[in-house]
Amino acid sequence: MTATLSIPMNPSYGRTQDIPFVVTELDREERDLILRCQRGEKAAFEPIVTRYMRRAAAFALGWVGNRDDALDLSQEAFARAYRAIHRFDADRPFYPWFHRILRNLCINHIGRSRYKREIPLEDAIPVRSGTSSPQEDAERSELRKLVWEGIARVSEQDREILILREFQDLSYTEIADVLDIPKGTVMSRLHNARRRLRDRINEISRVPLAGSEEE
């Protein structure tokens, strides 16, 4: 079944737009769970947490770079979402709404943190598995540090889309759903965010990074 909803976009991104979506059995199940939550059934929120906890923790980890803080922030975001669930429109997707709650918590956490540049970098930057030499490991570790420093220096908007794409490996369509923006906007925004990240890394390292952005 295909339908069209008028979904308010994130205020930081622009106007309301009509977004086509496909109503699946999962959507119906999620809607039923939310309606039960709104009727006061606290246990109905547990399957929603289970469904999105890994994604939420991964986003927070990419933002704050500390595993314990990321878990605390994602749990707090779910707690806040539950407390506000009676104001949520059950006919809309849950995760984009929840994502904004989590994002704001991450931003506030970074703003309060006095040790934001001392967080464990190895937790925040994905590492490809495989056999490598000690020298390759050292080079990869240094690159992770540069990437994290670069991500810490880009705008909040750039950081958000980089985390969704590079840390969580979401598709353009999935990112568009989360951010409530058109797919074309995702592609152009990601292209520009990668360019600005490369510029920040070049400024930090003083050694230009080779290669072009791959979409």
From TrEMBL:
Protein name: Sigma-70 family RNA polymerase sigma factor
Entry keywords, A to Z: DNA-binding, Sigma factor, Transcription, Transcription regulation
Occurrences of domain RNA polymerase sigma-70 region (ranges): 48-113
A Pfam family annotated for this UniProt entry: Sigma70_r4_2
Species, as recorded: Eiseniibacteriota bacterium
Transmembrane segments: none
UniProt KW ATP-binding keyword: no
Biological process, per Gene Ontology: DNA-templated transcription initiation
Top-level taxon: Bacteria
Family the entry assigns: Belongs to the sigma-70 factor family. ECF subfamily.
Limits of the RNA polymerase sigma factor 70 region 4 type domain: 147-197
UniProt-recorded Gene Ontology molecular function terms: DNA binding; sigma factor activity
